Amino acid sequence: SLLAFELIMQSLSMHVFSVTCIMSQRCLPSLYFGNIFCDAIRTSAHSLTKMKDCFIVYDAMIQSMTGFGSASNDDFTVEIRSVNHRFIDIGMKMPAYMTQHEIPLRNILKKRFDRGRFEVSISLNSTKTGHLKLNAHLAKSIYSALQNLQKELSIPGEVTIETLSGYREILAEEESSYDINALLGVFQKAVGSLEEMRQREGAFLLEDISRRIAMLKDLTHKIKLLSPEEVVRWREKFTERLRLIVDAGTLDNSRILQEAAIMAEKLDISEEISRIESHLQQFLAILANGAVMGKKLDFLLQELNRETNTLSYKTGDYAIANLVVEMKTEIEKIREQVQNIQ
Fold first, then answer.
1. Are residues 190 and 69 in contact, defined by beta-carbon separation less than 8 angstroms?
2. pLDDT at 324 over 50
3. What is the model's pTM?
4. Do 50 and 154 meet the contact criterion of CB atoms below 8 Å apart?
């Protein structure tokens, strides 16, 4: 019911979620909250219709760090590419006489994004391209210096125009007149285009990750159901060991206590299961925030991996061991996707 979902949302403090019911239309992630299953769909419609399928609607956007955006006007063409990076790293390519605007443009990117490596290319359109200017004085100085060096070191060959063409400083592009407001305007459009693509990619990542988190919750629940059966098997093993000790006439209280302690430690996977459930719940809560989350999610995945490793070490049950292997596979797949989240 809607009331049940409202209580769940309040308990998880997921204020960025809204809950609605719409006509049956299945797409995007499947999520588990307790024993309640929901399909999630991103929509701007919040109206209630027939009670068919319950959906959780994301109001916040998750961004991938991979994207491309471009824009152009009469004067400029701007292209921006972004890929994964631990922090924010910006590389800019523009005409030399425009470099005084580099810092303001960098600040625009830093205000809009928090992580990623950005490659920015700004070029003037052909009608605005400046003319090349020859620095004859510099060319003569380089030519003279090379000839002197050639004589001093007895280097064979000739100093030709091909030699001088390697010195880019000899030819410089003359500064062309341009409108700084036009530059800022087209740059903002390119940034907006980039952000839209990063959000679209983020939606695909969210879909895949959410489905895998649901699978992890399901696998954890199956392990939880199987754990009492393992207790019975270990009790039988312990009883048999105790019988052998008694039959051998070497009853040793310390040995009995030691065996009991080993069995108790081996059997107790309740803490690991509880921590896994808690980590998965935190994972969903972080996804709900829609802010910068990549590093937080990566940390939780490390903790999930550590708990599943402990489960693998403790359990002697074949069925549980297989489920743990499946969990590790899903965690690794989620980790690959999380590496691309801002």
1. yes
2. yes
3. 0.62
4. no
